[in-house]
Specification:
It comes from Ditylum brightwellii. InterPro entries: Tho2, THO_THOC2_C. It holds the Pfam family Tho2. A two-stranded antiparallel ribbon has the order 1-2. By secondary structure, the chain is mainly alpha-helical. The radius of gyration is 27 Å and the shape is elongated. The protein folds into three domains: 1-29, no CATH class; 31-149; 156-348, no CATH class. 26% of the residues are buried. It has helices at residues 13-17, 33-40, 44-47, 51-73, 77-92, 97-103, 108-149, 155-175, 179-194, 202-216, 222-244, 246-252, 282-305, 309-321, 331-341; strands at 260-266, 273-279. It contains 15 helices and two strands. The chain starts with 12 loop residues before the first helix and ends in an 8-residue tail after the last helix. It is 67% helix and 4% strand.
């Protein structure tokens, strides 16, 4: 039976062999089949539980349950206010005294609405619990397999080529597909960092990601720009948290595999280069952060000045996604934002 007809299993030998032709041979020197498989065999629901959205909606439903219950019982401020509103509406419509009295009676439709809201609140609470448990299970699976992602590769290959290969064959192609896939790419990287995946240099990845975004602005569609903006905004939440809270940076970054940044330095005496990996301190991270801001700002300004309509549209869409992070205390960011605002003709777009 062909591998693509077989039931998927991570440890299936035939399935693992089928990955090899999908990428160039050189790519497998930088990422492992385990990392490639894990990236493409999961979805956003496996990695992320939107607890805030769940909590907000559940709280809204519970407030509605309380309001309808008070109306049913005829007591409480919410009930009196609701009854007064319904009575006023009936009177304003020209209703008789009987119509006004009937307007404040707890009707059959309100009873059905109360039951529906109760069911929805209970269903959402149960669904959130299941989703959290599922995400924890997937995280545990990642923790058990993290040593298979990059550890089998040589140190030089991991340092030099993992970021480029991972972005080229995994993150960039998938993030363009849909907003959900773009969000998934961001949370996949966040997960790799949080479980301290050996060999995965988060700083190196972020540096490469900014370069990818800068280059992509000139050759993407409006939908693809929106997707890239979703991924960049989700990553920038984490980056901004590190940038403006040294304690968080120390807790979540310092001393972990993701804190390293690899540089390739040229030797003067020979036409060779040497690889140097060093941990990024908080002071150096601020410099990196400012440089990333400046790079994106310069690229956006170039797009906005371009005579090509799609360049301008792509830049506006991405900037709209990350507008909350566009202004900061650093002078480079302020200068970039000011230059962008000078393009008054953008109002027609």
């Amino acid at each position: 039976m062909p591998p693509y007809f077989q039931r998927f299993h991570p440890d299936c030998t035939d399935m693992q062999k089928s990955y090899t032709p999908m990428l160039p041979e050189k790519a497998w020197e930088a990422i492992s089949p385990a990392l490639f498989e894990s990236f493409y065999s999961h979805s956003l629901g496996d990695l992320h539980c939107p607890e805030e959205r769940y909590t907000t909606e559940i709280a809204r439903l519970k407030r509605e349950v309380d309001r309808l219950t008070q109306v049913q019982q005829g007591s409480g401020e919410a009930a009196l206010a609701a009854m007064a509103t319904m009575a006023a509406a009936a009177a304003a419509a020209g209703g008789s005294r009987h119509d006004v009295q009937q307007a404040v009676v707890f009707t059959k439709s309100q009873e059905q609405e109360l039951e529906r809201v109760k069911r929805n609140a209970e269903a959402l609470t149960l669904d959130m619990s299941r989703q959290k448990q599922h995400c924890e299970t997937v995280r545990t699976q990642f923790e058990l397999r993290q040593n298979d992602f990059l550890s089998p590769l040589s140190k030089d290959n991991v340092a030099l080529f993992t970021t480029q290969t991972f972005l080229t064959y995994c993150v960039y192609p998938r993030c363009l597909l849909s907003p959900e896939d773009a969000m998934y790419c961001a949370h996949f990287v966040i997960l790799l960092h949080s479980i301290e995946t050996p060999g995965f240099q988060t700083m190196q990845y972020l540096d490469g990601l900014v370069d990818v975004v800068v280059g992509a602005l000139y050759c993407i569609t409006e939908d693809e720009a929106g997707n890239i903006g979703v991924m960049l905004a989700e990553m920038w939440k984490l980056i901004s948290k590190w940038r403006y809270d040294e304690k968080v940076f120390t807790k979540e970054v310092v001393g972990k595999p993701g804190s390293y940044l690899t540089k390739e330095n040229d030797k003067d005496d020979k036409n060779e280069s040497e690889v140097e990996s060093e941990a990024v301190s908080y002071a150096n991270f601020i410099k990196l952060y400012n440089r990333w801001h400046a790079s994106i700002g310069e690229a956006a300004i170039g797009c906005l000045k371009s005579s090509e309509y799609m360049h301008t549209r792509a830049a506006l869409i991405v900037l709209n996604r990350i507008v909350l992070f566009a202004l900061s205390c650093c002078s480079d960011c302020v200068n970039s934002s000011g230059a962008i605002c000078l393009r008054s003709s953008l109002c027609r777009l």
